[in-house]
Amino acid sequence: MNHEADFPYPIARLYRQYHSYDLVIDSRLVGDPEKVLFFALPGQRRDGHEFIPALIRLGVRHFVAQRQQFFRHREAIARAVGAIRQSPPTVNLVDDPAATLRQLAALHRRQFDLPLIAITGSNGKTIVKNWLAELLATRYKVCSSPRSYNSLLGVPLSVWQLRDHHEIGVFEVGISRPGDMEQLRHILLPTHGILTNIGTAHLGNFSSQAELEREKLSLFREVDWLILPGRGELPHRAADIVEQGKVIPWQGEGGADMVVGNEALNVRFPDLPAVYLENARSAAAAAHLLGIDTPTINGIAGGFVPLTNRLEQRQGRDGGPVINDSYSNDYGALAAAISFAETLDPFDSLTLILGTVQDMPDLDIKLNSLLRDRIKRLLLVGTANRRIFSDFPGAVFYEDLTSLVEAIGELDFSGQTVLVKGASYEGLDQVATMLSRQLHRTTLKIDLTALRHNYRTYRGKLPDHCRVVVMAKASAYGSGALPVARTLEDLGADYLAVAYPEEGRELRLGGIKLPIMVLNAEAYSFPLLVQYDLEPVVHRAEQLRWANNLNLRVHIELDTGMGRLGFQPEEFHDLYAADKGMAAAAVASIFTHLAASEDPLHDSFTRQQLATFDRLYESYLEGGGAPVQRHALNSNGISRFPEAAYDMVRLGIGLYGLGDDSLRMHLQPALSLTTTVTALCDRPAGQTIGYGRRGHIEDDRRIAVISIGYADGLPRLAGEGRFAVRINQLLAPTIGSICMDMCTVDVTDIPGVTVGSEVEIFSPDHPIELLARAAQTIPYEILTNIGSRVHRIYVGE
Ligand SMILES: *Cc1c(COP(=O)(O)O)cnc(C)c1O
């Protein structure tokens, strides 16, 4: 069977020519350039066609490009062709390279007659996929999607990995808009399915829960069986789409045993949080139906560990950054992690601690070309790596994790950026932890994936021409200016804004290239602005004169009702009418700030502010002023008054998922503040707890001491029971006063708390507003008061 006839001519021809090539859409993932077919895809920020010249110089010989875009870049491409001493590369011009990629993958899929399991659902897809692949590998040669490749681009790239020796495929599928699923089903043609769950969050582009659910289930229209959790109505609704007899619900709770369809299974799982137990059951049910026996399932499942997020960055013990990526370790994930680590490497000296890489054809050759010039120091861990050890002069080999852990105290990594990369089951996380500066301290975790999602959500509310200024003041709302700024630069933000010149300097020293406006710059700091290419906001006439003398680009702030900084209407009139320098100035923008954009009670005031802004600008134009860019909206302004976007907006708190209610459902909380339990004690009735004896024990209580105090940013107002932290998914109210470095909480009613248990102060599951309300303040103040000794960890690429 080859099905070529079902595909239009260019696809069948391309397939014949390229079926053994690597398909690549990210220029950083090129392995052996001669065996690469590069797809130039139009991106949000970087157009894939921009990379063609560099790739030609690298030796890539085959491209799929979009006709018009290709012609737009043809001169740079011709120069690159002129510079190489080979015949010109082959460029296949098409109307839609992404569609071509999908069709090639679909045709490739049809070359294989094997069971193919598709996994979708709101959460847990990647975990179920990884676990199921591990279970099936005990009996079959498995092809599974790399990392979390589950999108309209990820699925084709995953399917392309299928090769003749494979016996079974396991692929995850994610959708973001209506219609995606049909395209993905056409590519995958799954023979079996797993639905992990359907959550209520992140409806995104879907109008209702029911629509989202129907779309997800449509993936399974023609499968032989579909496994799903046997709760509620879901199995019945699934039967509307998948034939009744083919829907196989599983049941079970806790750490052992389950029922799959009507069959009891004596499985045992390790001690995992409840959500992971669900994922483990989905994987075990599928493995069972695919012929894996229960003892084997139990043997493998015993090693299931919860997967932390990918790519954690920490400050290292020896000074440089330590990056930990222990999600899955296939070639693509490794290449991506190296590229990522390079962007964070201030020393140009990358050390790699490498565990076992998932096997694939030509792995050794590929590793060789990937690591050779980019890794300065290589530590190989695990017997599987003995094979490649001799390929890398200077590499050090450790038989297993234990031998590395024993040696690690003696090793010195100063002046190096360390990337720790292994598969989750290898436990290399432990090495990353040992190499971090702070071990078990209070941590603010910043989820960069959520940040990206939120940025795009706001971006989606705005017209295309509108530019986005991201507010990076106060250390990016406490989350760390530089990593956040880098993420935003990468995402295509147009501008950054900081409050003070020093904050701008920090960003420049960290290599940020975006234009940066400084909201509050005094005259004495202007030379600093020149030195670091920063653009002041001016709100007094003399500031404008100084800026003109130094040729600085400026932003003019108008006060339309905020009553803080900004020219009053009549002052502004004087500024351009009685030439006080405005005509000569390099004015980058004129803006105003809304005082109550989030509050419907003040909407008429807000509209008045916007009308004043319009009126002032019109009279400025009538007075002969040159047109300039305008902006007025902060985060809640964007969600509530998108019609007043003008040319730019200024996004702040919303980036962290803390927008007003109108957008809240579509945002993802990006920040979690956590700490650990340091001591536990049973206290009898009558005792008191803490300073001033303010904690009263009425009846016997179990009290936990946790490692966070007001010096870390937990306000004293949160003490004495006005706030509860979250431990093991339950609430533990504070008791007694918050101290400087620690506080006490009541855990009497929470089973399973031990020294070392994780404590959530706020997180996606424990909203920061609870703490803000208890402390009689707003989330902004909570965030910006988080102490500097709190360890910031960035997760997500
Ligand atoms: C901080 C700030 C913003 C961003 O406000 P959010 O409410 O965090 O979105 C916008 N404009 C100015 C002038 C600011 O100072």
Automatic annotation (TrEMBL):
Modified residues annotated as N6-(pyridoxal phosphate)lysine in this record: 473
Annotated ranges, domain Alanine racemase C-terminal: 670-795
Any single GO CC term annotated in Swiss-Prot or TrEMBL for this entry: cytosol
Keyword Isomerase: yes
Molecular function via GO: acid-amino acid ligase activity; alanine racemase activity; ATP binding; pyridoxal phosphate binding
Presence of keyword Translocase: no
Active site (catalytic residues): 473 (proton acceptor), 691 (proton acceptor)
EC annotation from Swiss-Prot or TrEMBL: 5.1.1.1
GO biological process: D-alanine biosynthetic process
Pathway(s) this gene product operates in, as recorded in its UniProt entry: Amino-acid biosynthesis; D-alanine biosynthesis; D-alanine from L-alanine: step 1/1
Cofactor(s) recorded in Swiss-Prot or TrEMBL: pyridoxal 5'-phosphate
Binding residues annotated for substrate, in chain numbering: 564, 740
Reactions this protein catalyses: L-alanine = D-alanine
SMART domains registered for this protein in UniProt: Ala_racemase_C
Cleavable signal peptide: none
Domain of life where this protein originates: Bacteria
Enzyme class at the top of the EC tree: isomerase
Keyword line: Isomerase, Pyridoxal phosphate
Pfam families: Ala_racemase_C, Ala_racemase_N, Mur_ligase_M
Similarity comment: Belongs to the alanine racemase family.
Task of the protein: Catalyzes the interconversion of L-alanine and D-alanine. May also act on other amino acids.
Name under which the protein is recorded: Alanine racemase
Protein encoded by which gene: alr
